[in-house]
Structures are given as structure tokens and as C-alpha cells.
């Protein structure tokens, strides 16, 4: 059973205006009934399972693709449950049975419409219902290039990204990414029934969704499931990568927090017990593990061997040419690190060095080499508020330690800015067309201490997404929002952000390493209040 429409209203703060003419599609022997959003001339289908429920013996296992629904009539008029995650997400709105997919489409289209598909969504938090596709579908219709928008859930935390040697031995690593592959396979098999073209899928994502999508781009299997990508604030190495044994203690803390399995925490034989545990015990273990972890994000992708999704570091795979030759848009926000560090307890450079060691300690280098590089890093990013993030705020420390701005600048560049450029340069060297951007528009009404923080571009891109960023949108920002949507829609429909339709906007040139070498010109489009321009 799924929660009703109030579930969506609660965490996306967007109400649909249903009519009595509910849209229907056939999936095999099942009639799937959605909801018509009459005010926008759109249809919504939500909470459709794309995999078998990952509970019991299927808990901590790769997803099993759901090829048929289990009933003759399926109510798809609302979103499904969010996957299990920590507060502040309300417990009553989440469940383990969460592997569902949602579809927004223009009304009155049929199986033969073959519209292009824009598909996407921390490894600890998130839900597909947060990404409301009505705004971007409406803009696609207004500009004469209609699309179908798809979002999905994937398992989070220890259920989606198990850590430790036992998970490695049982081939149960990176399950959340396998969930994404299963969702893409479901789209491949079923999106035509909703009027989408399974040969014109653009896989997009933000933050963890972007990291996961970029990991798929390091695997040739993505080429049969999507033809392009959009990476917003995240790439394969944003979260780092390590062997699963590195976070053995995090797995033990998780098991120790599950009352029915706590005595087995250090035995290396925990999966059978965890598969038999009830969901409330599992959730309790999640809370314990997060409270005990010294890292910001202990549950994330790991190296999983030659036959896995992450067989080696991206820095090694690029020179070997081990990546899919698919075009993409990739960008970041000006102050990516602030929202992660604003509540940090780090107030000294010694503490900062320890935090870097805890979060970024690659096994390929010795401790001495690591510490040497950390000291070099601290010299390049000195404790000088005028140089820190949020950038362009002078010596203002917003009542916090000056180390906050130093820490935010390091984390933002290390995890996001450098990774975006690494990917763009690697693809450019392989003659694959990519487009880069930097989002620099502060959301109206947000605290200045955050600057242009991680995820703040979502308000512009989805426009109606007030549930994520509940701040007013001024008329200039509305113009910026329309331009961003036009670029994204143009790319999804034609593999080129410059189709000439919609809002008049500058030509977005492809990213090239040659232009990067020039100090007077870079090929990154900058989204600011004065509309859009090139970074100079």
C-alpha cells in the first residue's frame, strides 16, 4: 500500500489539480491508472515498482527487476514511500519497499509518441518525490519540444551501500547503483507505453544521483540504456573511493545498533540475521551507525573488483579509455562546500587536517605521503577568510571560526570543482562533446553564510521545487530558471543545448581543453542574475 496524495504535498509542497479523467496505460496484463494534472495538461504516474520489494531474503541483495505487476489494476496516482533514511525525514513516510518509479508526461500522448526522456533524481538521504517534474515538462511543451520526465528511488545508507569484508565476499556492494541500473532497464522495457522513446534517454542526477550516474558512465553497459548524461554537482570521485574493508567499523556500528543482531556485530556473519530483522530494528541500526561515524558520508560507493561497477579509481580508468563515449552537461555551484561544513566542529587547522585524513585517506599512498600533501593543501588554502567560501564575502566569518570558510573552500574544490574539470577534460581529450557550467546565483532569502550552496540550482531548474528550497523567486530568477530549463530540454531532445527554441539565450560552446589553457577564456557557462554569460 502506498501513502496518499498528502504524502507528496508534505515533502514536495506541490498540489496537483486532478480531474475525473484519470489517464491509464497498459503494462502487460495490468491497467495502470495515474492522475491528470489538468491545470498543466499533464499526466502523472507514481509509485510504480521497478524491482521486487528488497526485504527479507532480498534485503542486502542486488535488485530483482520487476517484469510484471502483481495485480490487474494498479493505482499510480501518488508517489510511493521514500527509502529508509535518517532524520529529519519523517519515519512514517518511508519504508524498505521503496524501489519505485514516477513519470510526468504531457496529456493526450500515446505509445507511439516516442518523446525524449529525461531521467534522474547523499547516499543517506533523498527521495524521488522531491524532484517534481511538472515545471520542466511544462516548459518543454511551451517551447514545442515535449519530453517525458522520470524519477526513481534507490536504497540508501547501509541498505544501499553496505560496507566491510562480508558485503564484499557476498557480492553485495554498491546496491544503490544497481537499483539505478534496474530502473533504467525498467524504462528501457516500459517507457514506450507512456509515450517515451527508450532510444532517447538522458540520464541526469544531482549530488549523489550525479555521482551514481557518472559511475555508470565508467561502464559500457550504460550505452544500451541512455544516450547522454547531465551531472549536477557530483562525479564518480566526489565521494572518494576505497576498499570496502576501510569502513568495517561503520558496518559493525550499524549491526550493533540492530537489537536482534547486535551480538553478531564483529563476527563477519551478519547478513542472515539482518535479513531476518524487522524494519524498525534496521532503522535503529542506521541511526546508531551515523551517530558513531567520524565521516560525513560513511555509506557510499566502494571499489568492488574487476567484475563490479567500480573496479578501479576513475583517475586510472580515464587514461586507459575505460568510459562510455556519451555526451554530457556537467556543472557545479560556486560554494559547494558550505552546506556540508557549516555545522562542522572543526575550528582549527589541526582539526581540519584530521578531518581531511578521516574523509580522504587513499590506501594507495603512505601515511607520510598523505600528511605531506595535506600540509601542502593547507598552504594553498590558507586560513584567510577573504579567500574562503562562501566566496566574495570578504573577511566576514558569519560568527563562525575562520576555519569554516577555509574548510568549505577545500571541500568544495576537492570534492566537486576539481572532479568536474577532471571529467570534462578527460572527455574533451577523447573528442566527446561536453558542456560545463558554474551556477553563481544566490537563492533569494537564504542565509548568507551558505552562499551559492550545494543543490541551490535545483530551485532554478525545477522552478516549482519550493519544498526543497522554500524561498521566493524574483522575476530575474524566473528568467534564469527558464533559460536553464531550455538548455537542459534542448540537450535532452537534440544532444545540443542550442536548439534555438524557447528563451533567447547565449550559444553554449562545448568545453575544450584548448580554451581552458587560455587565462582569458574558459568554456564554462555561468548562470547569474544577469542571465547567463561565459566565465572570464
UniProtKB/TrEMBL annotation:
SUPFAM superfamilies, A to Z: alpha/beta-Hydrolases
Residues in Carboxylesterase type B domain copies: 23-516
Keywords, in A-Z order: Signal
Annotated signal sequence range: 1-21
Organism domain of life: Eukaryota
Pfam families: COesterase
Gene3D superfamilies cross-referenced by the UniProt entry: alpha/beta hydrolase
InterPro entries in UniProt: AB_hydrolase_fold, CarbesteraseB, Carboxylesterase_B_CS, Type-B_Carboxylest/Lipase
Database matches in PANTHER family: CARBOXYLESTERASE
UniProt-recorded name of the protein: Carboxylesterase type B domain-containing protein
Amino acid at each position: 500500500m502506498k501513502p496518499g496524495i498528502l504524502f507528496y504535498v508534505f515533502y514536495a509542497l506541490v498540489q496537483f489539480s486532478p480531474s475525473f479523467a484519470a489517464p491509464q496505460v497498459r503494462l502487460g496484463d495490468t491497467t495502470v491508472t495515474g492522475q491528470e494534472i489538468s491545470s498543466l495538461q499533464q499526466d502523472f504516474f507514481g509509485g510504480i515498482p521497478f524491482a521486487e520489494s528488497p526485504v527479507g531474503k532480498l534485503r542486502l541483495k542486488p535488485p530483482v527487476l520487476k517484469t510484471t505487476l502483481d495485480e490487474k489494476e494498479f493505482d499510480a496516482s501518488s508517489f510511493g514511500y521514500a527509502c529508509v533514511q535518517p532524520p529529519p525525514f519523517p519515519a512514517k513516510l518511508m519504508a524498505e519497499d521503496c524501489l519505485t518509479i514516477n513519470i510526468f508526461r504531457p496529456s493526450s500522448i500515446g505509445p507511439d509518441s516516442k518523446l525524449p526522456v529525461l531521467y534522474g533524481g547523499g547516499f543517506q538521504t533523498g527521495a524521488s518525490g522531491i524532484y517534481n517534474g511538472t515545471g520542466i515538462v511544462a516548459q518543454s511543451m511551451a517551447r514545442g519540444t515535449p519530453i517525458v520526465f522520470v524519477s526513481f528511488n534507490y536504497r540508501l545508507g547501509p541498505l544501499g551501500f553496505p560496507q566491510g569484508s562480508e558485503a564484499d565476499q557476498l557480492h553485495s556492494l554498491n546496491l544503490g547503483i544497481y537499483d539505478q541500473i534496474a530502473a533504467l532497464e525498467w524504462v528501457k522495457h516500459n517507457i514506450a507505453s507512456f509515450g517515451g522513446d527508450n532510444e532517447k534517454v538522458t540520464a541526469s542526477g544531482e549530488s549523489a544521483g550525479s555521482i551514481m550516474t557518472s559511475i555508470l558512465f565508467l561502464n559500457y553497459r550504460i550505452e544500451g540504456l541512455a544516450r547522454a548524461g547531465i551531472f549536477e554537482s557530483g562525479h564518480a570521485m566526489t565521494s572518494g573511493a576505497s576498499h570496502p574493508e576501510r569502513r568495517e567499523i561503520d558496518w559493525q556500528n550499524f549491526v550493533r545498533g540492530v537489537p536482534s543482531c547486535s551480538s553478531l556485530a564483529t563476527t563477519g556473519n551478519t547478513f542472515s540475521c539482518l535479513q531476518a530483522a524487522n524494519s524498525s530494528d534496521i532503522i535503529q541500526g542506521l541511526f546508531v551507525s551515523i551517530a558513531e561515524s567520524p565521516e560525513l558520508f560513511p555509506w557510499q560507493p566502494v571499489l568492488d573488483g574487476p567484475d563490479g561497477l567500480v573496479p578501479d579509481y576513475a583517475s586510472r580508468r580515464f587514461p586507459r579509455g575505460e568510459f562510455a563515449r556519451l555526451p554530457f552537461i556537467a556543472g557545479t555551484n560556486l560554494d559547494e562546500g558550505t552546506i556540508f561544513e557549516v555545522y562542522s566542529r572543526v575550528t582549527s587547522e589541526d582539526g581540519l587536517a584530521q578531518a581531511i585524513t578521516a574523509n580522504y585517506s587513499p590506501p594507495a599512498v603512505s601515511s607520510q605521503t598523505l600528511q605531506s600533501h595535506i600540509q601542502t593543501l593547507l598552504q594553498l588554502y590558507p586560513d584567510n577568510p577573504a579567500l574562503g567560501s562562501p566566496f566574495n564575502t570578504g573577511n566576514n566569518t558569519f560568527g563562525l571560526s575562520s576555519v569554516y570558510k577555509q574548510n568549505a573552500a577545500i571541500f568544495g574544490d576537492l570534492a566537486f570543482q576539481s572532479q568536474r574539470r577532471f571529467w570534462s577534460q578527460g572527455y574533451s581529450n577523447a573528442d566527446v562533446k561536453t558542456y560545463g557550467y558554474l551556477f553563481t546565483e544566490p537563492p533569494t532569502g537564504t542565509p548568507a553564510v551558505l552562499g551559492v550552496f550545494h543543490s541551490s540550482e535545483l530551485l532554478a531548474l525545477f522552478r516549482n521545487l519550493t519544498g526543497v528550497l522554500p524561498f521566493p523567486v524574483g522575476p530575474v530568477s524566473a528568467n534564469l530558471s527558464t533559460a536553464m530549463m531550455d538548455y537542459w530540454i534542448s540537450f535532452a531532445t537534440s544532444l545540443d543545448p542550442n536548439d534555438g527554441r524557447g528563451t533567447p539565450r547565449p550559444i553554449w560552446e562545448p568545453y575544450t581543453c584548448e580554451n581552458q589553457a587560455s587565462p582569458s577564456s574558459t568554456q564554462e557557462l555561468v548562470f547569474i542574475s544577469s542571465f547567463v554569460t561565459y566565465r572570464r
